[in-house]
Amino acid sequence: MYAFTFERPATTADAAKLAAGGAKVLAGGQTLLASMKLRLSNPEALADLGGIKELVGIRQEGSALVIGAMTCHADVAASAVVQAAIPALADLAAHIGDKQVRAMGTLGGSVANNDPAACYPSAVLALGATVQTTKRKIAADDFFQGMFATALEDGELITAISFPVPKRAAYMKFKQPASRFALVGVFVAQTDGGVRVAVTGAGNGVFRHPGLEVALGKSFTPEAAAAVKIDATDLNSDIHASAAYRANLISVQAQRAVAKALG
In what residue span(s) does the FAD-binding PCMH-type domain sit (predicted)? Predict the structure, then answer.
C-alpha cells in the first residue's frame, strides 16, 4: 500500500466533512482494502465509518424496514426483524461471500460500490427501496447508474436504506464459485405497485427486466416467467459464461425465485 492518513470519525457529520475534504470513506473495506493492496487505489486519506453508532441498526417504520448503512451482512441475515418482514433480504445477506465477508461487509458499502455482480443492489432495486444519504433521499430507480456508478455526489454518504415490505419476494443466485459473487442473480418482488424484477451479474450493472415484470404481473407463476424470451444482446460474455448462457440463467433463476416466493 501507499502511505495515507487514517481518521475514525465518531459522527456522521464528521465523516461527511472528511469526505467533502477528499478523504476516501471506508465501510467494511471488502473492496477498497483489496484495491489498495493491489495498488489499484491510492487514497491520500481514509475515513473509517466503523465507529459511528448511528449508522448501525435495523428497525421497522410503518410498512418499511430501515437498515443502517454500516450494518453488516451477518447482522441482516440473523435479524429476526428482517426474517419476519422481508425473509428474502435475510436470505440474500446469508449467502454473500463467506463468513469473514459477511462479518465485515456492510449494506451501505455494497450499495455505494455498486459492483455489477453484487447481491444487495438487486434487492434495493427490486424492492423499490429508498437510499437515504447525508444530503437527500434517492429512489432505487434513480440511484444505480451503471458499472460501479451511482447517483451519489462527492462527499455524499449513505446513512440508511428503507425497504418497503413486499407481499412476497425471493432471490436466487447462481454463484461464480471462486468469488461467490453472482454469475447471475434474480430478485423477484410482488409489491403493492406491481411486480419488480432485478437482475445482477448479467450486465454492466444491476437492471430491471420489463418483460419478466409484465408477465409476472399478469400471472405470478414460474410458467409465466418461463414463457418470457430473454434477449442476450447486451449481456456479459466472458471466461465464466457466454451471454447466451447468462440469458438462460436469468430465465431459470427467475422461475426458481417465483417458485420460492410462492413457497
Answer: 1-168
